[in-house]
């Protein structure tokens, strides 16, 4: 698994969010979140920014 995928999944599960709930918060589909967490899809810069803002992380961590 890619490092960014591990970080995203870890942060999401720490907050007890389902993929569906997290996806809704950042404006993605649940399937997109699943692919990102599996390391099969790399998030765009725009999506990285939304994720890092949501989790209050540095963009370089995502």
TrEMBL record:
Top-rank lineage group of the source organism: Bacteria
Molecular function GO terms recorded: DNA binding
CDD domains, A to Z: HTH_XRE
Residues making up the signal peptide according to the UniProt record: none
Coiled coil: none
SMART domains: HTH_XRE
PROSITE patterns the UniProt entry points to: HTH_CROC1 (PS50943)
InterPro entries attached to this UniProt entry: Cro/C1-type_HTH, Lambda_DNA-bd_dom_sf
Start and end residues of each HTH cro/C1-type domain: 8-56
Protein's name according to its UniProt entry: Helix-turn-helix
Organism for this UniProt entry: Ignavigranum ruoffiae
């Amino acid at each position: 698994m890619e490092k960014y995928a591990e970080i995203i999944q870890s942060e999401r599960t720490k907050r007890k969010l389902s993929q569906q709930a997290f996806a809704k918060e950042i404006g993605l589909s649940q399937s997109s979140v699943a692919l990102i967490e599996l390391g099969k899809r790399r998030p765009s810069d725009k999506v990285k920014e939304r994720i890092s803002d949501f989790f209050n992380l540095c963009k370089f961590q995502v």
